[in-house]
Cellulase (Ceutorhynchus assimilis), 455 residues
Amino acid sequence: MNSFIVLIFALAAYACAEPEIVPVPGGKSGSGITTRYWDCCKPSCAWRENLGQSGKTVPVRSCTKDGRSTCDIEQETGCYLNSTKASYMCSDQGPWAYNETISYGFVAASFKGGDDNSKCCSCVVLKFQGALLGKKLIAQITNTGGPLFQNHFDIAMHGGGVGPATFGCWNQWNAPFGGWGQPNGGECDQLPSDFQSGCRWRFNWLGVDNPDVEFEEIYCPHELTRITGLAAYACAEPEIIPVPGGISGSGITTHYWDCCKPSCAWWENLGESGKTVPVRSCTQDGRSTCDIEQETGCYLNSTKASYMCSDQGPWAYNETISYGFVAASFKGGDDNSKCCSCVLLKFQGKILGKQLIAQITNTGGPLFHNHFDIAMHGGGAGPATFGCWNQWNAPLGGWGSPISGVATVEECDELPSDYQAGCRWRFNWLGVENPDVEFEEIVCPQELTRITGCS
Ligand SMILES: *[C@@H]1O[C@H](CO)[C@@H](O)[C@H](O)[C@H]1NC(C)=O
Ligand SMILES: *[C@@H]1O[C@H](CO)[C@@H](O)[C@H](O)[C@H]1NC(C)=O
Ligand SMILES: *[C@@H]1O[C@H](CO)[C@@H](O)[C@H](O)[C@H]1NC(C)=O
Ligand SMILES: *[C@@H]1O[C@H](CO)[C@@H](O)[C@H](O)[C@H]1NC(C)=O
């Protein structure tokens, strides 16, 4: 719990402009080789017993079958044929480009050859050589492996080949037995939505097979530890704990995705709510964290701007429970009084029994009383004509219509890779347009606050 508090307070306090590459004095360095993999298995550094040598205390986060919901660290791995309620590599532990020369990512590594947990959760900068000279990967070590050589970095990238772990992706995603593609390849479009941008990174950013590197141990940036650093709660049961004396009642829902930095990402909007850390917002890539002082990308004149992070969208935990984020108003119009509070939305009518566990990250002038505008990718930009256009070169006014967004699940294919799962959620999980809800304020689960940093 303490490490979590430290994590969130540290999180909002750094800038989006410059990735920090700070060498560890006396740290590892040298020349090395790279390969690539994605075997879907819970990584080595996600086991307590493997952290001993490294001096680390919080294992790498691992996930349930959906690749998003956090698993208990005691959960067995989904890597074997006999796995049942198992734990897998989280889908967000893949690479993304910060710009043309710098990427972030995760690697399996060995410094002595073979299994080597001595540097679990340490970070390295991999300086690519040869045709890629000048490109760098800022990476956290989350895994190791028997087949690795000395100074060997096996870069985690979706569709990168499963190696000897034949059953992992087959168990998790019904992937072809032995994973997608040849054990050393893959076809990005056939992968789960959350895997596609990490898969394309190899072809679009890296562009070369298994480049050699010069490497140097560096202090881990928050940009990586925020993804791996939270492992202390259970995957089995979402926690729904009502806030005594919290708000409750009947409400309406709509949906939106305007790409704009949300209201609760501004210090000055947190006043009324008593919260102290604003919602995380992102650079144009939708993944790298922005400084909270960064202006919003919502207007025509925006330059170095801040946007809604792509991971602040919905996902299904199972058929009846989803997690997500909403813009809300309780008094009608702009209403920041409940910034970063959480609610349970119990859907009524045709989808009675389905529930959304949601954090309030935004508000808006056009909202009514007890109105929850559910954030879902491709959900309609409303009056914010320029946000998605600035961020993604979306059509002016966003994808689909400003009010209802894209009209069919097929149109989700036209959205950025990181948006597709959240877009399909509307058609595949929710299934009805703007259902009414009964709502109740609940204690925010870490499953949501780890994404926004606000609680
Ligand atoms: C990428 O970002 C780094 C750090 O801010 C900067 O030094 C570098 O010049 C950038 N590369 C490009 C191609 O913009
Ligand atoms: C599952 O199979 C693996 C590999 O064969 C074995 O190590 C493990 O003990 C088995 N687990 C159970 C619960 O049977
Ligand atoms: C979804 O998960 C919740 C909490 O673990 C459980 O109560 C519910 O029965 C599950 N629903 C389905 C359809 O499995
Ligand atoms: C950009 O436009 C918005 C809306 O028209 C305005 O509020 C803001 O002050 C402008 N910012 C700059 C830097 O010109």
Observations:
- The pocket of 2-acetamido-2-deoxy-beta-D-glucopyranose (ligand 1) is lined by residues 18-19, 99-102 (CB under 6 Å).
